[in-house]
Amino acid sequence: MIRSMKYEVKEIKKPFPYFLTKSPNMSKRRISRDDISAYIMITPFFIFFVLFVIVPIGYNFVNSFTNYNLGKTRDFIGLKNYINLFSDKNFLQSMYNTLIYAAFSVVPLMVLGLISAVALNGRSKILHVTRALFIFPYITSMVAVSMIWLYLYEPSTGVFNKILLGLGLKPQNWLFDEKLALSCLIVMNIWKNIGYVMIIYLAGLQSIPQELYEAGKVDGASDFKMFYKITIPMLSPISFFIFVTTMIEGFKTFEQVRIMTGGGPVNSTTTIVHQIYIRAFSEYKMGYASAMSIILLIIIFVITMINLKIGKGKE
Amino acid sequence: MKEEVLIRGKIRNRGKIQDRERILNQEKVRELKALEINFCSINGYKLLTGTIAVILVVLTAFPFLIMLSVSLQTMKEIYAPELVFIPEKAQFVNYVNAMKNGNWGRYMFNSIYITTIVVIISLFINSMTGYVFARINFKGKNLLFILLLVGMMIPPQVTMVPLFIMMRRFPLAGGNNIWGAGGTGLINTYTGLILPFIAGSFGVFLCRQFYMTFPKDLDNSALIDGCSRFKIFVRIYLPLSKPVLASLGILKFTGTWNEYTWPLIMTNSDSMKTVQIALTMFRDEAEVIWNQLMAATIISSAIIYILFLLLQKYFVAGILAGSLKE
Q1: A residues 222-281 closer than 8 Å to B (CB)
Q2: Residue B284, CA distances (Å) to A279, B194, B276, B277, B280 in order
Q3: Residues of chain B whose pLDDT is less than 70?
Q4: Which one of A26, B4, B6, B322 is separated from B280 by 20 to 30 angstroms, measured CA to CA?
């Protein structure tokens, strides 16, 4: 019993790629009865997984070298799709928009999420209720959120313009303004995801040992100083994680663009996934859209790999 | 004699109760003092974070309050030049009218049907696979596990184009021949809507992490008794996995219920629309009827909110577990 418990602990504390380290008796042995039951039990999952995750990726890759358009022709045209991509103004614009969208969502999200986590960290009932309030936007569907904000941004009857008029300021065109539209989407994104960032920061805050703060107090450090010297450094792995996940989420942006602006005005809000959607499902250029998907996959893959590399270095 | 014992017992109990009360009181006093300190020693730091938090709370709640308020207003109040926050008379009729605007009974049924099937199948399959990865050292385990982790990284947006083609050309479905040509395949079918949702590998990972914390002797003793692996999973592990299944189930439920992109691609007939797609129909009209749209928004999100209020603990656990996947 005790021995097995010890074994468990060891297993958990192995360095990161623990699943790569082979146990000595694993490499050369015959298939046992246990193996067979294992294979049978994982088969249902892997049928779905292979059919709907692995095969599509391979299919996507092959497709990206063809000019398939749901019709009869399907010729291999080599790298032509990829070459065309980099002279496609719409796609380059969408790359730029997506990058701006992701970058300008991430920083405010992290700052505001951390502040709300620090302010709402505690056990009283009020704090509990308030924390729950912050999660509501996060669990609301993007469609519902878009609908609410469409009304807020509406130029003629919307809330923001009524407030601006009430304050004697000039009303704006919000989503119909080429310069403002992307910022409008960013603000909405921040509103929706603060709760998520806050929850993760709260878990991080609760894992910081209290002794550090007590020691700080004894040394006469001010709260600002302790926040700066203890809280932020102790949370840095979590901050990095949030940075990566919100960045990746930003690169997947599609629903709000399709619902609220349709990529406009003048392509100022189109994103990579939105371009994929338009090429594939209104122009039926499946090969071209596949090439875009592969580019998106590569971007996300690179971000994840950087995450794993740096994450490993920190441990 | 007996009575004496009883009385003594009572006295002792009373003593205990008094002790407990005293301790409780002390704790309360301490808490109050802590609060007092919190309120009295208002320094710049607390003032700053507190103020920002209050502002954030107001800003977070504001759109929801607007949604609620607009859903109860008349169109006249919405078109008024100044902001109406509290409607003159709450128009609950908006909710009824919104549901009449389109076949909402059908949309609700579609969403509930798809979500329920996805949750049930994926919970069972994921937990079973998670159990195998946590407990059995089968050949090829490492390779399959790496495949699984890589699969977790692949966003559904990347596979939507090939998946659509695959669904359209699904052999022997929707008028297709065996080579997948001629018909519409699985487009506009429940199967086509459900299948890709079941494939995610995150649940397997979550269940595996959970089952790793179980003692191994649980399996060994059952194996010695001649129990099969499947039976061990169903009889011992499944009944013990309520927390992980609750968290995973909620994640799957909200994910599927809130999904917009896949139903958008896969359906074009009115009878197959899900709630989320139906919501966007209000927007397609020439003049948006805001009060009905907001009412429909509230109705479509209500099920998620109720679930959240009932199972908040598991919700948060699920979100956190999702964040610790590396």
Answers
A1: 222-224, 227, 241, 245, 248, 252, 254-255, 258-259, 273, 276-277, 280-281
A2: 21, 26, 14, 11, 7
A3: 1-21, 23-24, 27-42, 180, 322-326
A4: B322
